[in-house]
Write a structure and sequence with these properties.
By secondary structure, this protein is an alpha+beta fold. It has a single domain (about 5-180), classed as VC0467-like (3-Layer(aba) Sandwich). The protein is about 20% helix and about 35% strand. The protein is built from six helices and ten strands. Strands 1, 2, 3, 4, 5, 6, 7, 8, 9 and 10 form a ten-stranded mixed beta sheet that branches. The longest helix is centred in the middle third of the chain and has 8 residues, at about 110-115. It is globular, with a radius of gyration of 17 Å.
């Protein structure tokens, strides 16, 4: 795969016509994209869970009630019992650097650090991930199921989840309200 086709550190924005209930109106942050496939985390589907719920489940005590209110996101339909933390630069036991500024961690020690108020500056916690086999994501993009463009940390970590879909498309100069959900042919 040529470098220009690597979508790591990009947003994958569901087109209005994408009817798959797993991905309708989603923004997915692509963590890894190789010839073997792609892996990403949906960043705009908060669940009815908070970080304090995970701390309780893992028997982690915390004196950080503000962080405890952080929402947990549905990251995708694969391995929904597994947690992923997208975060600004910091290293833990199981951390993969996506860029020099953004990493993903899957180990418990990041949750412990957050409980002790020594976690990363910004973080998004998700259960599950989105995965594509070799060539599958490229086919879906060619079929106009997705828009893709460079990720933006402000959207990823600071913007309310309900605004991320439209904001990610605006980065590309696209107003999703002006696009039809119907496929057509000229």
């Amino acid at each position: 795969m040529s470098f220009s086709n690597n979508l790591a550190n990009h947003f994958l924005i569901a087109m209005p016509g994408l009817q798959d209930p797993n991905f309708s109106r989603t923004v997915t942050y692509i963590c890894e994209h190789t010839d073997e496939g792609a892996m990403g985390i949906v960043i705009n589907r908060p669940m009815d869970l908070r970080l304090k719920d995970l701390w309780e489940q893992f028997d982690i005590s915390s004196q950080n009630p503000k962080a405890g209110e952080m929402p947990i996101y549905w990251g995708g339909p694969v391995q929904t019992d597994r947690g992923f933390v997208l975060h600004t630069k910091a290293t833990y036991n199981s951390t993969l650097d996506i860029t020099s500024e953004i990493s993903v961690t899957t180990s418990r020690d990041i949750l412990e650090a957050m409980a002790e108020d020594r976690g990363p500056e910004h973080a998004l916690i998700a259960l599950g991930y989105a995965g594509w086999g070799s060539g599958q994501l490229e086919e879906e993009i060619s079929a106009n199921s997705w828009l893709s463009g460079p990720a933006d940390q402000r959207i990823l970590f600071r913007l309310p989840a309900s605004e991320r879909w439209q904001a990610a498309a605006r980065l590309l100069g696209v107003d999703l309200n002006l696009l039809s959900a119907e496929a057509g042919h000229a």
